[in-house]
Design goal:
Strand 7 and strand 8 form a beta hairpin. With 342 residues, this protein is α/β, with parallel strands linked by helices. The chain has a domain of 239 residues: Alpha-Beta Complex (Spore Coat Polysaccharide Biosynthesis Protein SpsA, Chain A). It contains eleven helices and eleven strands. The relative contact order is 0.14. It has a five-stranded parallel beta sheet, sandwiched between helices. The protein binds 2-acetamido-2-deoxy-beta-D-glucopyranose (2 copies). One 2-acetamido-2-deoxy-beta-D-glucopyranose binds next to loops.
Amino acid sequence: MRRFVYCKVVLATSLMWVLVDVFLLLYFSECNKCDDKKERSLLPALRAVISRNQEGPGEMGKAVLIPKDDQEKMKELFKINQFNLMASDLIALNRSLPDVRLDGCKTKVYPDELPNTSVVIVFHNEAWSTLLRTVHSVVSRSPRRLLAEIILVDDASEREFLKASLENYVKKLEVPVKILRMEQRSGLIRARLRGAAAARGQVITFLDAHCECTRGWLEPLLARIREDRRTVVCPIIDVISDDTFEYMAGSDMTYGGFNWKLNFRWYPVPQREMDRRKGDRTLPVRFGSVVAPLRLSRAHTLAMSSVKQPLTPSLVARDTSSTRTTGGWQRSGWTSLKTSSI
Ligand SMILES: *[C@@H]1O[C@H](CO)[C@@H](O)[C@H](O)[C@H]1NC(C)=O
Ligand SMILES: *[C@@H]1O[C@H](CO)[C@@H](O)[C@H](O)[C@H]1NC(C)=O
């Protein structure tokens, strides 16, 4: 009997230590400044409670859960674009998103005279709701004077709704939207170049056809280019769940790059960059600053914000100041080079 009690005590103490360990691990792993982490995880939840008026599916970037009865249909629809189309179609085209920027980024002031930009979005058989949510997020979260136009390049889609219906829809938007059509399937890069050739803005921004821009995404990107027009910038890319369309803040302590097999991967920001920024995570992280601009600075500076295939493997500056563009999915039908790390 005594032995049994003894065992229980030992068990209870070890259990306590396991819990303490788990707690310590959760608290201290993967973050240098833990108050940041707390800020990020607590505030969106709080804000969601405060903004009771935005209660529709997926508002404030919340997950959309499909009821059991519709699961079969959901799985069928999933196959069309390789994401949960049913969930996407339930979410408003102008849904609200949490502001997940670091506090330091929210109060930054950018120069008034920033260059304006043409946003080029290539699509192939994209879903209506994801494509237009991308467009709406660009329109509503970019200062109007900075947004010269949006150029949609259709890489030979077959879906009927991407023809006249799309043209009619975008006419109603307050920003000029051009739709260019490739005569035949040409791939992402050719289609982007076609969009770039038609661009009238001072800066070209490439976006995926299924992303959502958050508040303050554009100004820091353009500010870097204003400082040095040879700069190529890339925002922090967060993730939208392909299952629930939940908005999930990514880490600003990683950057996208290519491994020797030319697969896209996320890498931790090197210590030398941390040191250079003296711990100020609102400053951009620099990469490959020698090679990339030579190729790109012909007529335009390109602001690149693509998850899947940045035009050059080495992006010059990954702007971590306040830019957050939500990442798309790796399985989007029309890319041959796929990322598998999201
Ligand atoms: C989206 O648009 C609808 C209709 O125009 C409007 O009622 C709603 O407030 C908008 N939502 C957001 C988050 O702006
Ligand atoms: C972009 O800015 C330039 C220089 O200020 C201006 O000439 C041009 O009209 C602007 N373009 C648009 C479409 O706003």
